[in-house]
């Protein structure tokens, strides 16, 4: 079956078997159109406006076709003996049916108009898209219908009967059916826009393009923001489907995992308002961004009628930071928000028993601290199920490498989440709806991607992610395309992050052709042959950001070294002032300064960078501060949710910057990496910093004699292809990835 035919969810509800019959017939009939990428279809398209009360529910089947327009098919699994008569729009049903009357055509018509409401304000689509509403009766033949003397209604209402589901018959019936909405066959641009609208994506305004002769970076950003991306079918599957159990989607940095998780949770909440759902994340500075993204999708799917209110403690949907209130890392007022850990404490009356008394607790990283405390809960308390679905963003930040902190060989945070989940059905106690994302090569703490067995134990995790659910919903998805970071910057991030061109050999990375292909690369050579020359290259179609073609004035990547820190920071200040004055970049969101190094080095350098900019009349913002130009935000005058401040340039250490992005990224303190270039976690910092960029990146450091700097320049010169002699790396981050 084509991946352009998307089944949202199968639940075993009444009527699903009838829908399956029509869906299968539709897939066969539109197969060729799907192969030509001129058709897209959904079984149970997510549309939940309530303004028509219970009359308008989601469309059973929605077909989006370049030639035929929009077709909504309302499927009724009735048999001829269920039908007593027809009066106008009302089909009268015999006693014992779930309703005395139904209005299938009127329902399909209103669903069609609700869908078209999504693009009423798009000039290219207004009055251009054909619209049809139809009724399908797979258990009734045309002859049976005629024998009941219902021929007149069949002439007025487009009906697909059970003996008319052969591909040619079905296409003929649809083509010959009456139009609810007139329009025309779409051109290529209109078709791209229609697919985007149906997927829920924003369609850029059709404003005159900026003059290509202009050299302003801001003009280039405007072009980028108006760029018309084509629909990503894999993203459609991930964002809209609701699996009846576990699911993981992993992939490359900037592939859109957080956005898709927010879309999925919105769809779940609207379709199943009785479910208790939690969306959990780790990076505090993403709190406002995630709420905004979830509300965007709630608005899209509910026609603006449903929004998430973080102050409503009774909400069935909860967006939770991993920590929350009442935790040992409670560093500011902003922590007084619900969190997964704090919610477990509260609901299980744990109180303050877990005080972090582990002898080395203060030295643990934040993920290790949280994992240790989750382990103590698991050891000392019986966990009560309280959620129907849990979705975890940034899953790589919630795993730990230390066996001492793990719970019976399992990852404590994931295992605690598992324990809080209700089974999908009483008959399947081990089938629970836990969904998580994983950024490959982006963890700042754990070095490897854990398998399901390492997360949940041998017995449960052995085959947890293998195969797919009914309807073709995959248990594990890998996303190779990057939309955020330009191709040259992304390949550089992988090349330097893994140490592919390092004189002493590769430090870390993927070691099979399949794993490289999963993140969007092509490989020439054989990883099984030690010492063989390999070529790893990234095709342009997997790097979707168009900046390399939009900006040709200067390189997207710049790297400079300086004699001392004072010279480095003086140049930095001048560059940012030029960005603001001549390039017309905005200080907030357009520009981001990322500081590299371990905690002590990075904190010291952060202060120096901030002071240098302030002394040059550039307002700065340190994440978690309440206002700009505060060099050292101190509790209680802090809020860890704050990352940007209007009118100020954010200066951030790497852990705060993770998950955020900017058009111009300055990476300062490269010497902190060069001084200890074999430290994989430090290289991971550089990888994360580079992949914050949507357009340009400037790297700088002091003392230009480091071998690491020579390696960096070789990586930059290699472009989108790396050639190197392969020897097993110090850490194989892909050796345990069970994505097959």
From TrEMBL:
Gene Ontology MF annotations: ATP binding
All copies of domain UvrD-like helicase C-terminal, residue ranges: 649-699
Keyword annotations of the record:
ATP-binding, Nucleotide-binding
Query: In which domain of life is the source organism classified?
Result: Bacteria
Tell me what this protein is called. Answer: ATP-binding domain-containing protein
């Amino acid at each position: 079956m084509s991946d352009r035919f998307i089944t949202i969810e199968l639940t075993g509800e009444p009527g699903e078997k009838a829908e399956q019959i029509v869906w299968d017939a539709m897939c066969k009939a539109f197969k060729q159109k799907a192969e030509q990428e001129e058709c897209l279809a959904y079984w149970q398209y997510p549309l939940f406006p309530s303004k028509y009360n219970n009359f308008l529910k989601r469309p059973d089947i929605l077909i989006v076709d370049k030639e035929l327009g929009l077709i909504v098919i309302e499927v009724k699994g009735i048999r001829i003996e269920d039908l007593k008569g027809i009066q106008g729009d009302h089909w009268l049903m015999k006693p014992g049916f779930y309703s005395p009357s139904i209005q299938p055509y009127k329902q399909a018509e209103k669903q069609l108009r609700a869908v078209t409401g999504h693009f009423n304000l798009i000039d290219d689509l207004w009055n251009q898209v054909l619209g049809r509403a139809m009724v399908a009766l797979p258990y009734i033949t045309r002859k049976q219908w005629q024998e009941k003397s219902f021929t007149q209604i069949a002439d007025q209402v487009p009906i697909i009967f059970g003996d008319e589901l052969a591909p040619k018959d079905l296409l003929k019936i649809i083509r010959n059916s009456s139009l609810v909405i007139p329009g025309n066959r779409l051109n290529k641009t209109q078709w791209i826009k229609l697919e985007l609208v149906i997927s829920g994506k924003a369609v850029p305004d059709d404003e005159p393009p900026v003059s290509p002769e202009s050299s302003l970076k801001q003009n280039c950003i405007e072009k980028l923001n108006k760029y018309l991306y084509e629909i990503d079918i894999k993203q459609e599957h991930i964002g809209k489907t609701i699996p009846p159990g576990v699911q993981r989607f992993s992939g490359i940095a900037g592939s859109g995992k957080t956005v898709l998780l927010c879309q999925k949770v919105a769809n779940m909440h609207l379709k199943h308002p009785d479910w208790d759902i939690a969306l959990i994340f780790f990076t505090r500075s993403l709190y406002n961004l995630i709420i905004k993204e979830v509300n965007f999708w709630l608005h899209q799917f509910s026609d603006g009628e449903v929004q998430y209110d973080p102050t409503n403690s009774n909400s069935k949907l909860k967006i939770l930071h991993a920590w929350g209130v009442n935790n040992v890392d409670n560093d500011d007022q902003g922590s007084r928000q619900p969190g997964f850990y704090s919610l477990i404490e509260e609901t299980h009356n744990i109180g303050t028993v877990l005080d972090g008394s582990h002898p080395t607790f203060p030295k643990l990283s934040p993920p290790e601290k949280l994992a240790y405390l989750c382990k103590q809960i698991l050891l000392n308390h019986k966990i009560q199920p309280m959620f129907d679905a849990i979705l975890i963003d940034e899953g790589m930040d919630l795993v730990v490498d230390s066996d001492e902190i793990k719970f019976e060989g399992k990852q404590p945070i994931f295992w605690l989440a598992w324990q809080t989940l209700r089974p999908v059905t009483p008959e399947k106690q081990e089938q629970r709806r836990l969904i998580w994302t994983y950024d490959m090569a982006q963890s700042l703490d754990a070095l490897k991607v854990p398998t399901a067995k390492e997360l949940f134990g041998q017995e449960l995790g052995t085959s947890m992610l293998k195969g797919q659910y009914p309807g073709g919903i995959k248990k594990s998805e890998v996303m190779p395309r990057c939309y955020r970071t330009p191709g040259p910057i992304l390949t550089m991030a992988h090349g330097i992050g893994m140490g592919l061109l390092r004189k002493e050999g590769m430090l870390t990375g993927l070691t099979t052709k399949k794993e490289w292909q999963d993140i969007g690369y092509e490989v020439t050579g054989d990883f099984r042959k030690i010492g063989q020359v390999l070529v790893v290259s990234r095709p342009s179609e997997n790097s979707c950001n168009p900046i390399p073609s939009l900006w040709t004035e200067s390189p997207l990547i710049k790297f400079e070294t300086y004699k001392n820190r004072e010279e480095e920071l003086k140049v930095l200040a001048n560059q940012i002032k030029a960005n603001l004055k001549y390039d017309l970049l905005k200080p907030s969101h357009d520009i981001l300064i990322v500081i590299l190094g371990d905690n002590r080095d990075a904190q010291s350098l952060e202060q120096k960078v901030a002071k240098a900019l302030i002394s040059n009349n550039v307002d700065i913002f340190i994440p978690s501060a309440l206002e700009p130009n505060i060099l050292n935000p101190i509790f209680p005058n802090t809020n860890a949710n704050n990352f940007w401040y209007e009118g100020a340039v954010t200066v951030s250490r790497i852990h705060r910057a993770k998950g955020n992005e900017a058009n111009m990224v300055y990476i300062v303190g490269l010497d902190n990496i060069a001084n200890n270039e074999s430290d994989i976690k430090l290289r991971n910092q550089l990888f994360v910093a580079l992949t914050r960029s949507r357009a340009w990146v400037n790297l700088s450091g002091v003392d230009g004699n480091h071998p690491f700097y020579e390696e960096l320049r070789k990586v930059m010169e290699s472009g989108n292809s790396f050639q190197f002699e392969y020897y097993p790396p110090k850490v194989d981050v892909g050796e345990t990835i069970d994505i097959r």
